[in-house]
Amino acid sequence: MATSGIEKHNANRLMELLQNRLSALNDLHLTLKHVHWNVVGPTFIGVHQMIDPQVETVRGYADVLAERIAALGGSPAGTPTAIERDRTWDDYSLGRDTVNAHLAALDVVYEGVIGSHRSAIEEAGKIDPVSEDILIGQTGELEKFQWFMRAHLEDPSGRVPHAAQGTESGAAATAR
Question: Where is this region: Disordered (predicted)?
Answer without folding.
Answer: 157-176
